[in-house]
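User: Before I run my own analysis I want an independent prediction to cross-check against. Here's the chain; please return only the C-alpha cells and, at the end, one sentence I can use as a sanity check.
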Amino acid sequence: MISGFPAQHVIADKGFDSNRFRDHLAERAIAAVIPCNRSRAQWIPYDPHLYKERHLVECFIGKLKHFRRVATRYDKTAVAFLAFVSIASIMVWLR
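Assistant: C-alpha cells:
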C-alpha cells in the first residue's frame, strides 16, 4: 500500500499496529508514528505531537466529503476525479 511513496514518517491509527507493518517501515528507514493497540504486550513509543497532525488531515477529508461528487465518486476517470478534488480543496481553503 505504501510502496513507491517517499516518506520520513508514516502516521497511522491503531489499526496499522502490527509487527509486520512496523518491520516493513523499518526496512525502508521510515519512522512509524502509530499508537500501540491495547492488546500489545510491549508498548512501543511514538511522537504524540506528530500524531496530532493526523487529526488535521482527517478533518480536511471530512470537509471534502461534504461535496457529494467527491463522496460518491461520480467521475469515471481518475483525472476528472482529481480535478474536482482540487476544486473542492480550493473551495474549502477559501472558506
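Sanity check: The first helix runs from residue 19 to 27.
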